[in-house]
């Protein structure tokens, strides 16, 4: 599948999104099919002509530390300037600073950019999402200064949460913020910061959580914008400690940063830093969807093309046949195609739901969209993360020994993808979120909303109807285990897998019903039909695994015995 075909498939998905009428009612003449297709064509052209040719070079050149600063290649700088010059960063931000387009259309374009180079696009994600938070929560003068610069790409931004002793355990953050009369200053160490230092932009704004009061846990954490330099260009005590040497994502420098009494600007209310940062985290988690699907689509395209060209096997008295004629290769390719199409569709639906949440003027309706979005986001994040790695791994399998060499891009895609199920919340964290928050705290609100939404499509698709019933029963069973959390937690990942299976089944059912009968629609329908043929078995297995309890974990003590 080339970039043009991918853009056509994305446009088709956008045209069959389930809540288009709701969005049109809120978006004052929002996107139409022709506009969406035109923008996707332009994104595909830019990706093909600018990003795709340099992806291997960016991976090979990576990042260097020169005189205490990260230096990226001139090739990287030229591509960043070209990307920003076309206005891609401002697509979904409100006018007049942005273009006011939908999050779903942005998500579709992000898939194309990530297909070429996921590490390149990571800077765009953090800068765009930081601009969104600053526009809503920063002091007006700071928002007026920073938001236009971030949306133009002249400046950039990071998210700084993790510390050496506080990764996902945010309540243990130790960075200190103090207001001593001349403004806020922050001291502390932050790590795992993507693009924490670089020379693509002259100024970087670090969106950092720091403890401004003596509260315990997340209480007392405030959000600060910490510029890499002060307004007059002088240093601001932001020091590069190290750059990680990583398996993949080589052109995205992952940094440890020290804040040495750095001047900082409070963003939002003091003591509510995590709540203020939540929207940035939410949008970054959504962007994990097209990131993973983009890498999966790249791997699938290589495998499909190779399988059509590579000849091996068949009757010994006849010429060898293309390996796509072998049954097992067909199975792998259909599974890859289904993975791409169904994660793609779920990414776009979830973006649409988040957009409806952001734009809704009715508090009750907005709350309903929020419930649905919070249920879908873990499925998007984890589903697309594993889609990237598993599809890249399957592509290596289809290519055989060739796929294991640097001559083909799938080894690079496999390296890049392995971290996707780790950052922005591991699989286990996403699974616990579903059980603790979505089932117990929210009393199944998101799950119930999801089952209500898919009911119409399930009526026309027996496989989806049965899988939805299995999910409903399993969710109820786990919800009843709130007083036995260990038993439910042992099955949380399987419950996450079950939710993903049903959500992808829903997308498949909609494709079969609405995908169309041209070449694009037939490709999509073939992938969807394959997935639906396996949905019942997938759902039954994951439901069983979700409910077998924690007794099987009793052997852990033996592993740690002297």
Give a count of the beta strands, DSSP E runs of length 2 or more: 9
Which overall shape is indicated by the principal axes computed on the Cα atoms? globular
Please give the largest β-sheet: 7 strands, mixed
SSE arrangement, N to C = HHHHEEHHHEEEEEEEHHHHHHHHHHH
Label the structural class.
alpha+beta
- The percent of residues in helical segments reads 55-70%
Rg result: 24 Å
Low-confidence sequence ranges = none
Q: What percent of residues are in strands?
A: 5-15%
Mean pLDDT: 94
Q: Report the span from N to C terminus.
A: 54 Å
Number of helical elements: 18
What would your notes on this structure say?
Helices cover 59% and strands 11% of the residues. The protein is globular. The model has no long low-confidence stretch (mean pLDDT 94). It is built from 18 helices and nine strands. By secondary structure, it is an alpha+beta fold. Helix 8 runs antiparallel to helix 9, helix 8 packs parallel to helix 10 and helix 14 runs parallel beside helix 17. Strands 3, 4, 5, 6, 7, 8 and 9 form a seven-stranded mixed sheet that branches. The N and C termini lie far apart (54 Å).
Write a brief caption for the model:
59% of the residues lie in helices and 11% in strands. The protein has 562 residues and is an alpha+beta fold.
